[in-house]
Each structure stands twice: as structure tokens, then as C-alpha cells.
What does this fold into?
Amino acid sequence: MDKKALQSLILSEKKQRDTVILAHTYQAPEIIDIADFAGDSYALSVEAQKYDAKRIIVCGVRFMAETVKILSPEKTVILPVSQASCPMADNITPQQVIDFKEKHPDYVAVAYVNTTAQVKAQVDVCVTSSSVIKIVKGLEQDKILFLPDGNLGAYVAKHVPEKEIVIWDGCCPVHDGVTAQDVIDAKAKHPNAVVAVHPECKPEVVEIADMVGSTSEIIKYAKAHEGEVIIGTERGVVDYLEEKNPQGKYIQLRADKLTCKDMKITRLQDVYQSVIGISGEKIEMDEDLRIAAKRSIDNMLKYGG
Ligand code: SF4
It folds into this structure.
């Protein structure tokens, strides 16, 4: 079956089966095309709560489907491909968070939303890359434990120097692979272009960029910019911009490095099979775990809203 036919089939089946499809912006364009909503990880969870549908298919990685389940427990949440997981989120265990907190008893634990439900359950507040500075500034405490992304932690520490921030040594292997030399080379090739990067990139990359922001902030910036923009985040963002704003000029910074294989593992066929109920993983979550994890997300809304 060709792509268009499969997309039509998905659209008609999802309607009949009271199903909504949410897709992260890093997903393949043919999946974003048939999604009811596309956005960053936090936007997906917030959006999920607005639909009446009984079933939500989350095209992204596991922590995103979990976050949707935490906020919409009454809905059936499906991750089309079980192996789609975030290496950064998987790289820190709940026990490591407990140990980290025990070593720093008078610190408040702040976690990036790119974490498992078990890790969210161990921390005081979650943050997104767009809300992290506001939230850390707004916390009453001056001593902060930040996890799991060391690059995002360094970015926060630079912007909130008045607080003492102890940072976990983790990273997103996709964004962390970009070097300052990659940016210098891209600028030499496109001297009139501006560079927009995600704060999951290394500090020396962030330092020489013209703009630093979350996925949605980069999209907004690139759409508004008149000339060429070099995009320093996962390549799905350039695909998204080229489709939604074709008059813009976008240059992908190191496509070979900025491709998240976990984000690309989901194919249109997997989405179809999830919609008709023959594959995909139903996210199950213990209610105690869900309530504990939700507390840190509720605090994110309290301090970041
Ligand atoms: S791009 Fe990085 S943070 Fe996002 S899912 Fe892939 S590994 Fe995880």
C-alpha cells in the first residue's frame, strides 16, 4: 500500500475507533501529517487532556507516553513501538536519584521532563527546556540538584548564577554529539545564516549560537526569521519547518549526528497497526507511582505556569 493510501486508512480507522494521534515534532513527516496534534513532549501531555477520545496513540518515545498517562489516567495510552525509548531518560535509575538526594539532603531535586515515571516520582519538580530557567529562579530554595541532562544543567547554572546547582552527569547523546567546530564549519559555509540550537547541546556550542531554545522556541524563531537559519536540533525539526513553512530557508546542522534513532523507529505502518489494535504497547502504571510522578509535574505547572 502506498503512503497516501495508508494515511487515509489511518485517518478513517482512528475516527471509527475513538482514537487520537499525538506526534512529537521529531517524528517522520508522514506521521506528523496524520496526527491530531504535533508538538514537544510537554505540549503533547497537555494537549492529550483536551481530547474526549478514549484512546491516545503517542508517536514519540516511552517517557512521552508515560507523561500522557500520568496526566490522563482514564485514557488508554498506546506507544506504537515498545523499543522507542530515550537513552538519556534510561540512563538514570530511581535508586541513583535516591542516592544523589541522600548525598545532598538540603537540596531540592529538579528533573527534566525527559525522565521515566519512576524518576519523576523521586524528584520535587519537573521542568521543560522552555520553563527551566523560570522554574529554577522561582523556587524558594537556593540549593538545586539538577538531572539528568548535564548540558541543560550547565545552561541553567549560567542563567541562574545566584543559585547553587549540583548537576547530574548525563546527556542526550544526539545533541551532545554536536561540536563547536560543527557550528563554525556550518557558519563558514552559510555566512549569512543565523544558528539556533537546543540547550541539550554542549555549552561551547550554545555559547556561539545566535539563539538557544526548546524545540517549539526554535520553530517559532525559525519561522519568524527572514534569512537562512541553521538548525541545531533533531533533524525532524527541519522536516517540520520545510513542510509547514516552505518559504523559509533552513539548513540542518550535522544531520548525521542530529538524528535520534529512537524517534525515527516508529513507522506509519506501526501507527496503523496501533490504531487497529494489533500492535503497540498499552502503557500501564501503578496508581501510587502515577500519583508520585504527577506531584513533580503539578509543581512544574505551579512554578512554570
Ligand atoms: S533526541 Fe535526545 S532527548 Fe530526545 S528522545 Fe532522542 S535521545 Fe532522548
User: Anything to note?
Assistant: The longest helix spans residues 287-304. Residues 61, 86-88, 114, 172-174, 234, 260, 262-263 surround iron/sulfur cluster (CB under 6 Å). The chain has a mean pLDDT of 96. Residues 3-86+263-284 form a domain with the Rossmann fold fold (CATH 3.40.50.10800).
